[in-house]
Amino acid sequence: MRLSRFFLPVLKETPSDAQIVSHQLMLRAGMIRQEAAGIYAWLPLGLRVLRKIETIVREEQNRAGAIELLMPTLQPADLWRESGRYDDYGKEMLRIVDRHERDLLYGPTNEEMITEIFRGYCRSYKDLPKILYHIQWKFRDEIRPRFGVMRGREFLMKDAYSFDLDLESATKAYNKMFVAYLNTFARMGLKSVPMRADTGPIGGKLSHEFIILAETGESEVFCDARLVDMPAPGEVDFDGDLQPLVDQRTALYAATEEMHDAARFEADVPEERRVSARGIEVGHIFNFGTKYSDPMKALVTGPDGKDTAVHMGSYGVGVSRLLGAIIEASHDENGVIWPEAVAPFGAGVINMRAGDEACDAASTDVYAKLDAAGLEPLLDDTNERAGAKFATMDLIGVPYQVVIGPRGLKEGKVEVKIRASGERHELSLEDAVNRLVEGAFK
Amino acid sequence: MRLSRFFLPVLKETPSDAQIVSHQLMLRAGMIRQEAAGIYAWLPLGLRVLRKIETIVREEQNRAGAIELLMPTLQPADLWRESGRYDDYGKEMLRIVDRHERDLLYGPTNEEMITEIFRGYCRSYKDLPKILYHIQWKFRDEIRPRFGVMRGREFLMKDAYSFDLDLESATKAYNKMFVAYLNTFARMGLKSVPMRADTGPIGGKLSHEFIILAETGESEVFCDARLVDMPAPGEVDFDGDLQPLVDQRTALYAATEEMHDAARFEADVPEERRVSARGIEVGHIFNFGTKYSDPMKALVTGPDGKDTAVHMGSYGVGVSRLLGAIIEASHDENGVIWPEAVAPFGAGVINMRAGDEACDAASTDVYAKLDAAGLEPLLDDTNERAGAKFATMDLIGVPYQVVIGPRGLKEGKVEVKIRASGERHELSLEDAVNRLVEGAFK
Lengths: 442, 442
Fold this sequence. Notes:
Chain A is α+β, with helices and mostly antiparallel strands and 442 residues long. In chain A, 33% of the residues lie in helices and 28% in strands.
């Protein structure tokens, strides 16, 4: 992408209404624009990152055997009357009446609708097990939306739902999502820690939150350092036994503020391994059995010919929230430092003197080569002064920057700057391109 | 994808409430499920096609230089009060009140919001020209939603908006979208005809509808046969002069029922080239000048230092509607016949006797090879009887089917069936795979 053709409205001032760094940086870097309280437009830069996060979430869901569908944003109220949640849900549910006076709502979550879909088609144990998911916009009418996309009202969520004949099989589905989540967040460059959670209004017994550690996180968390250092499982056989991978983690102490037990923490974790940090919830998984299938009569016939309510679980990832969470975990005073896997552009090319024949030619050449190699480069071909160009490239967090100026070019040199470390390398044009394409600076 | 793991709830009976063939087939093939009047869940098969269509639309928008962003589904009513459309829009607009008694609405289109975004950042002719687009769910509270996704209430639309200093430049943007649309629909295997259109409530002078021809189309259209036969422009320089490409088409007679002038049709088009057919609207482009920028004060400073309201246009494609339209244009009595570019699976592998060692091995082998070659195959590894497997594969419209049975295998043979023509080829396993990978049956 050439910056002169892109739409990147960066702001010079930090907006005064943004309290946390991710919100400030997303506004300054021209990633989002508020359209109403807690409702944002995703500007081109923000959308590019959102799509990368969404793709990682999708790929890891697919790898775990989950099947994607897409439920609508609006739902009929009657579905929620069946489960009993229509009256319980309170003012966070955005209730809507259509022109025929029928009650609709903007889905805050989809347990009811997926149960309705399941019961419409599946009636036998032979249809099981099944994990269905979608990535769709949700709405929760938060009383005080704040912190940008971290606590917005219209937000993008991945929610998966599992269907099994019994608790044993449902636990396998739970474990698949548990492992998929570890891999998902690791691919985004995040350290995520699963913590036993309160099941809240969704109900059920088995539940974990996935918390990523960030100095500016929203809440305090406590855990064993071994959990933080443990690498994600990576490639595993999702049809195999995942219980050991799960047990290995759940055996170690980890708790959010609400679930924290200081005495147990001290008893179970030696002092040198006690991590007390700040965290951000980015995923939440539940096994809630027949909480919805019972009232909604989602029954399956077992091998014994008897009908039983299907065992279910639900598994959420805050896709739009992850943008904020990643920035909270990875930034400095100059801007965002994107982990490569979610960076909006893989490399930046700064033409220090647009209009200068040699600079233009070299910049276009480097840009074309990085583009052909699939690095999705951004070429700053504008007439801004050099300082502004550097500042913008740092602000938007492009991982590698190739700086092309008339002085260096005379000696056939360009500068490669690594955003995360600030390191600079003076290289020939050819070396710069080759090393970037090889991933030599990773 | 293995069918035993997929979620493909095909129906044996044609649902009685579906009046048109695309609606019937989408329900029967397990592509959609109605959740409320005009509100559908996209089941996995339908979603796969929807995503392919979306991707083609996106690629052609990008190629034309349009920049993607994403506006939220909900909008503040105040924006529409600025343009004056809040009261005008009538009951098709779904109006919502949030917990703080603020008026919101589910966006039926985005002229107001994109104008608000533009004016928030762009104030100079140097920021122009710009084409911004998004692909987002919209809602129109149709009084009688019908025909499945062809006239639903919650629907996916691509809408682009152009910003220019004057009409001359705005016409260039218009021409870019005109050409991009021809290419977009052609890539989906559709014959699209641009027809001069009434501008309706969006306003403006220059407007075309893009109509695809389908025997079961919703309305009657009239045009010169040369328009139908004219190939799409294909690769063009979008920075170059596109006017000749546009003129070449707009010079020929083409009109929908409402705009039809029988006398002119007969005068302008020789009898043998007079096409009178049925069509479906899948795109609509408008140049409406300063209709929104005037009341909303989206001003830009020109090179002369004077402020003028920015010239705008809007350009819509009915992404979810296209699924229905493609099916209307391409089906037979056995089901859908997907054009390859949008087919949910590139090839089907039918294991005629799941459980038979030789059949299982050969099927898995063919499946793995087609998968590795990027054909996105679907392997029917279920225990259904052969007739049901054939019927399902035809119903869901997979372009090529590899039928693997015990009898053929004894002679090392499998059968390849071409869905569109019904042709069958008896081939060795190796030949079948190689020819499919080469695209030899196209």
